[in-house]
Amino acid sequence: MSPREERILARINETFAPLECQLDDDSAKHAGHAGAASGAGHYRLRLVSLCFEGQNRINRHRLVYDCLRDLMHADIHALNIIALAPSELQQQAPSV
Length: 96
What we know:
- The protein is of the alpha+beta class.
- It is 38% helix and 24% strand.
- The protein has a single domain (3-87), classed as 2-Layer Sandwich (GMP Synthetase, Chain A, domain 3), CATH 3.30.300.90.
- It contains 4 helices and 3 strands; from the N terminus they run αβαβαβα.
- A 3-stranded mixed beta sheet has the order 1-2-3.
- It starts with a helix and ends with a helix.
C-alpha cells in the first residue's frame, strides 16, 4: 500500500469508523489522462458506515469529499464513491 493510500484510509477510518472500507487504486487504468500527469491518483472507494444512515447519496458523497478535502487534487484526481449505510447491506445481499 502506498503512503498516499495510507493517508486516505487513515482519514476515512478516523472520520467514519467504517464497518467496511475498500480503496482500490485505478490510476494505472488512466495512464496518459490529463489528470494523471499531475501525479494525483484515480481511486474507487467502497465505504460502509453508520454515519450514512438517513443520508441521501449526495450528502454521503459530500461527507467523504469534506473528509478528504485537502487531499483532493493534490493526491486524488478522481474518486468513485460507493457509500452505504449498514442497513443497506442486507438489501444488497443476493437471495439464495
